[in-house]
Amino acid sequence: MFLVVALQAEAQPLITHFGLRCESPMGMFRIYRSESMALVVSGVGKSLSAAATGYLSGCSDGWRNAPWINIGVAGHRNVHVGELIVANKIVDQSTAHSWYPPQLVSNVVNSTLITVDKPEESYPERAAYDMEAAGFFPSATRCSSGELVQSIKVISDNPHQSIASLNARSIEQLITKNLSEIEQFIHRLSELSIEIKVLPHNGSLPELWANRWSFSVTQGHRLRRLLQRWKVLIGDGETLDSVLGACKDGAAVLTALEARLNAEKPTYRRSLLVGPRVSSLPDVQSQ
Amino acid sequence: MIDTLYIEQAIATHPRVREIGLRFPSANQIMCERYGAVFNRKNQNFRLQKKNPSLILAHKFDKHVLETPEGYGIGGRKNYYFSHMLNCIYDCRYCFLQGMYRSAHYVLFVNYDDFFSAMDAKLMAHDGEDVWFFSGYDCDSLALDPLTGFAQHLLSYLETRPHAMVELRTKSTQIRALLGQAPLSNVIVAFSLTPEPAAVALEHKAPSVAKRINAMAQLAENGWRLGLRFDPLLDDVRFEEHYQSLFRDIFDRIDPACIHSITIGPFRMPGSFFSNVVRLYPDEPLLAGSFANRDGLITYPKEREAAMLAFCFDELRAYVSGDKIFSCAVGGRDTVRADTEPINLGFRASSH
Prior knowledge:
The complex is a heterodimer. By secondary structure, chain A is α/β, with parallel strands linked by helices. Chain A has 2 domains: 2-195, 3-Layer(aba) Sandwich (Rossmann fold), CATH 3.40.50.1580; 200-287, no CATH class. Chain A has helices at 8-17, 46-58, 133-140, 168-177, 179-195, 207-210, 217-233, 241-244, 250-262; strands spanning 2-5, 21-22, 30-33, 38-41, 68-76, 84-92, 97-99, 109-115, 128-130, 149-157. In chain A, a hairpin with a 4-residue loop joins strand 6 (84-92) and strand 7. Chain A is elongated and about 75 Å long. Mean pLDDT of chain A is 88; it is low at 200-204 and 274-287. By secondary structure, chain B is α/β, with parallel strands linked by helices. Chain B has a single domain (4-335), classed as pyruvate-formate lyase- activating enzyme (Alpha-Beta Horseshoe), CATH 3.80.30. In chain B, 31% of the residues lie in helices and 22% in strands. In chain B, the strands form 4 sheets. Chain B has an 8-stranded mixed sheet with strand order 4-5-9-10-11-13-14-18, with helices on one face. In chain B, strands 2-1-3-8-6 form a 5-stranded mixed sheet, with no helix packed on it. In chain B, helix 10 packs parallel to helix 12 (302-317). Classes of the chains: A alpha/beta, B alpha/beta. The interface between A and B is large, with 39 and 45 residues.
């Protein structure tokens, strides 16, 4: 789970709530982490937001298709201060380019979010206004699936409550008041991400085998799929040793596995492997 | 049912768009320039979007009617297909759409008349000949009909075009528009069917086979001509028993005289689509089975495929004459029976 936040005041309630620790030494951007979450403080503006998103990705060994959320405050013409919205359309005001984050979490109010280069005080459209989302979204969708890249904002100002009245303390309070909803949103996106979690490309066969055989990159891909098929079709009903015991090299392993799998009778049956796609199968060591 | 409605700005005031918008008063309506800005973008995930698909209302500017691949058909010489929608409300694990698109949103093209104009152009080009138009390649022809009303418009159009032969392909029981009017001899309502155990395991959210047969029986009673589409044929250790049972269940209820045509098509999918689907559902037993790659097309091994086709063909011959049975197998007629005339090459993917 990756969070991209513009201001320290927006970040602080999240850092405290999720028990994140500041990473040192500090690089281009300040990063806070726990085991399951990383937060970067980008600074204000879409360029910094895009840069910080890329920086956080580069500094993290995260899996592909992890959730990325841009959290912060925004103005809105029609929404009350303190309400949380999720952007269903992000517009870069300076280029008129639009993005449409797919909406899978339905319990948060949706709104168009216009990213501006300077603070917007007249709220000309029925939309939220921020300064980062149009930098964050295209950058984060290079690291993850679009459904898992979202921008959520707490409304901090509107025509009745000027942006001039905001300060660090009031911003912290706005985020703090919405922590529960933010956490629910994060939780829901996490569930979705686990469903499509891509198995790491690097890994190893159980030590016993890894020492016996080696596989080219192509063979590694094939082996991974064969092991996946084994898990689905045969599972624990039979040990791999019974098939692979006599194999002399990687190619023979692939042939033996394929032959055994192809001998399996087809059946109409539902996938029994519901829930997270985190397999206990051995991963494949590629050369 | 629909939480988010994307609408192309240019058609925001189209009466059909307004009408559909009113059907979803609590949906978020989001204006977009073109549907391509929302649908099928890079880094979208079909499996996730399928959890809560949005509806996109769009205008189709060109290519309303396309030629089918050579040899595809159910007896006609001129064959075309069209898609007034992209994607389907059902979630069938063998469906090629999940490998073809990255997006599971439904796209509805609201300019129905442009499809009909394009069909007219084809009819004029083949003046005096029957021209076949296949609907339901990129969508289910009827599943969303209560919302789209497309069938009613199409039927009205077809009433005065006897040479326009249309196949409506469906797994749906949404047949009200058809039952509400006199049958048309130039319309074939073709139902996709698999044995009940396969339907239960693989055709998520689709009506049961029994309900589909019931819908067929109602249509037959009202004089509509029917098609049976066993496409894809899906292998199982009890394949013969399951398909025998399916055929028996159908013909217990349906008079064979009501059957216009039967298509049998083994599972087949372009390799790239298949890889995409495996990536989406690596734990799906169907996809973990034994397949061959024949010129970039993923199919059952050739011998097994031939045996499946031959079995179904022989079984179906007990109910209908061979000239009503068509195959979508790769390699065409040779894979079924050399003595069978109307065998055609199929679309490169099995039905959905």
